[in-house]
Amino acid sequence: MKVSSGINYSAGTAKRMLALAGALLLGTSAIALVAPPATASLNIFSNPQDKQARGRVPGRRRGGARRGTCAATTTQLVALVAAVEVETQTLPETYVGGITSAERPTFWFDVPYTLNDEITAEFVLQNNSGQDVYRTTSAEFAADYQTAGIIGISLPPEIPPLTIGETYEWYFKIDCGAESPLYVQGGIERTTLTPTLANQLSAASPLEQAELYQANDFWYDAVSAIAPLHLAQEEDPAISAAWSALMRSLGLLSADTDVEP
Q1: What is the reported pTM?
Q2: Per residue in 194-209, pLDDT tens?
Q3: In Å, how far are 27, 76, 188, 201, 241 from 227, measured between CA atoms?
């Protein structure tokens, strides 16, 4: 299991998602997303049915079934981030994303393929005007970070800090020659820590930090606190237990098991 660096997009509505899907089917590399309504300002995840919670946009957390020439795998492409499915009058809609306190956050994905010349990946982050903030491909990933497993895509120092209160949209796709690549898509909003939480975090260990972030709905930061430890010390019982607990809280592991639901 490895880690790496990543892509760009814009924020959007269900119509925009359909447009995105169409663009993918045509094999285009440019991805257009839609800015979320300006009213998206409620306390994130306080209400599971609040699809306009901060940083959450219409998207998809799992890459779905293999496409075209993509080889069969036992796992799917998954974004390690919070998501909620909202019932509508037609089909259910999935809202993906959340808040971060990081100026330049890391986006985590579980990738089912080793990346090479034939199987490539791309990560895109766009602001709410649809402009690219950051875009990268697997050709730019470190060699050690191209093995199937967990990949972390961090915004580099030369990228300006995310603007507090602005919703950004990201996209990660894997292209193995199919007409429609596998992809996941979601949103993120940077917000500030309360003084109390900031003080608690400064005195906490990484595992304690993950618990504090999770308790305050900073899911991106919670994953970023544990993922590097999990990758480096996967056999450590305490780290393994904390990682599994976090994945269960995100709904990415079944209760009391290590199996994806």
Answers
A1: 0.78
A2: 999 999 999 999 999 9
A3: 32, 18, 18, 17, 12
